[in-house]
Amino acid sequence: MTERKSVIRNIAEVPWKEFPNHFGGALSKPLVDAEGLGAQHVDHRISCYEPMAYVALHTHKVQEQIYHVLSGEGLFEHDGEKTVVRAHDVIFIPPGVEHAFYNTGLDRLVFLVITSPPSDD
């Protein structure tokens, strides 16, 4: 059995990545994931969307997600409705809910994404 250890990760060591179905400068840093740290039950990212960047409408079959907005503002679309979200807003997305996130503001939209269990994207 492989020994499990806690890890401290410096955010500057993790490269930005544009995941599938993310467009226009919708970048994320996978901070805690299966690939980088061997996490089995959670995926934790910080995302930074430039103005006009977005993730296309999509659903997750079994994953729950939390988006925690740190700065900026944008539109969160879920179940056909669009809602303005800003710093300190927290969004919970259960499995099966179609959703998208758009930076419609003037500045970068920065938010945390926590997914459990980790998705395959």
Automatic annotation (TrEMBL):
<dbReference type="GO" id="GO:0046872">
    <property type="term" value="F:metal ion binding"/>
</dbReference>
<dbReference type="InterPro" id="IPR011051">
    <property type="entry name" value="RmlC_Cupin_sf"/>
</dbReference>
<dbReference type="InterPro" id="IPR051610">
    <property type="entry name" value="GPI/OXD"/>
</dbReference>
<feature type="domain" description="Cupin type-2">
    <location>
        <begin position="48"/>
        <end position="114"/>
    </location>
</feature>
<dbReference type="InterPro" id="IPR014710">
    <property type="entry name" value="RmlC-like_jellyroll"/>
</dbReference>
<keyword id="KW-0614">Plasmid</keyword>
<keyword id="KW-0479">Metal-binding</keyword>
<dbReference type="Pfam" id="PF07883">
    <property type="entry name" value="Cupin_2"/>
</dbReference>
<protein>
    <submittedName>
        <fullName>Oxalate-binding protein</fullName>
    </submittedName>
</protein>
<dbReference type="InterPro" id="IPR013096">
    <property type="entry name" value="Cupin_2"/>
</dbReference>
